[in-house]
Amino acid sequence: MSESEIQQRIRSAFFPGPELTPAGIIETLDLKRPIYRKTAAGGHFPGRNDPDFTWERTDRIDALAGQ
Q: pTM for this one?
C-alpha cells in the first residue's frame, strides 16, 4: 500500500466530514472540553479507558482497516 493510500484511508476513516486541519481535529475529537486536568495529574496512562480521552477511542478501527 502506498503512502498516499494510507493517508487517504486515515482521512476517510477518522475525518470523513471535516478537513484534516487543526480545527477539524479539534472538532472531531471534541477537544474544546476542559478535560486536561485529568491528564496533567499523573499523566494519561492510568486512565486510558476514560471516555473523556477521545484520542484513545478505537471506534473507527474497522474503517481504517478497510473493512
A: 0.40
